[in-house]
Write a structure and sequence with these properties.
Layout: H1 2-20, H2 31-63, H3 76-98, H4 102-113, H5 134-166, H6 173-176, H7 182-188, H8 195-201, H9 223-228, H10 251-256
Helix pairs in contact: 1-5, 2-5, 3-5
């Protein structure tokens, strides 16, 4: 059921882009973009995510054979907190590490290779990126322990925030213009990822005063960036997306590095 709801959320934002910003034709789009986005999304949803969740549950069963369902009666708020820590906060650190460690950046680079933001970019990563993501394995373990009923609602809300933050139909922009809502938006933009804070992470030029490539790593909660000192909030949006001075690479390398790799060592730089 949750997969259907997430699909409808994605379709809803895609329709908004079709009507307002052009879903199929984005600025700077190349021929390989659609290939990378399609292959990475299908691989994640059909293969990687299910296997990682099952793998996490299997490992948990080896560690705690009698642990199946032991957390099923945990209060809902405690269950949500468990996923916020073991899934969302863990993903924050994984994302942050991916902008620090060169070989991890090669797995994450496809997400920033696009010179635009869109719901098309949400699942865009190297096919091995999510297989290694600890948060998916932890989520599988929590589901094995009995928190599957919490996960269903949690993942819907998380994907609503993530999809909305990646869309170039900026839901937060008109709200910033309403002076009476400014205090509320102050709280919102420090709690969850918004188009303004997340687009700053995707900005192309560090000199534009908005781009914050080495921060704004939050997925569901932007609060992690606030807490760990990587937040930049401007209520503005970069004019250009991508990564400055990023060398060219093929769609095959984006998807299947290190199985398919060039000899261009410059591509591993994460100093932007």
């Amino acid at each position: 059921m949750e997969k259907l709801v997430i699909f409808l959320i994605f379709v809803g934002f895609a329709l908004l882009e079709i009507l307002k910003t052009g879903f199929f034709r984005k600025p700077g789009q190349t021929r390989s973009d659609a290939i990378v986005e399609t292959v990475s999304a299908v691989t994640l949803l059909v293969v990687t995510q299910p296997l990682a969740l099952l793998g996490g549950g299997y490992v948990a069963s080896l560690i705690w054979p009698d642990g199946a369902g032991v957390l099923a009666t945990l209060p809902a708020m405690a269950g949500v907190a468990s996923f916020l820590i073991f899934d969302d906060m863990t993903q924050y650190w994984w994302h942050r590490l991916s902008h620090t460690v060169p070989w991890l950046y090669n797995l994450h680079r496809p997400h920033h290779n696009a010179e635009y933001l869109s719901v098309r970019v949400v699942y865009r990563n190297n096919v091995f990126y999510y297989a290694l993501m600890p948060s998916l394995w932890f989520s599988g373990a929590l589901i094995y322990l009995g928190l599957g009923w919490i996960y269903a609602g949690y993942i819907i809300f998380k994907m609503l925030v993530i999809i909305g933050a990646h869309s170039d139909v900026r839901w937060d922009e008109p709200l910033y213009r309403i002076k009476a809502l400014s205090p509320l938006m102050w709280v919102v933009e420090r709690t969850i990822s918004t188009p303004a804070t997340h687009s700053a992470h995707h900005g192309k030029y560090a000199s534009d005063g908005v781009t914050h490539y080495k921060g704004n790593f939050g997925n569901l909660l932007f609060f992690w960036d606030v807490l760990f000192g990587t937040a930049k909030i401007t209520r503005r949006y970069p004019e250009r997306m991508g990564v400055e001075n990023l060398p060219e690479t093929s769609s095959a390398e984006q998807l299947f590095w290190p199985v398919i790799a060039t000899q261009n060592k410059k591509r591993v730089s994460v100093t932007t």
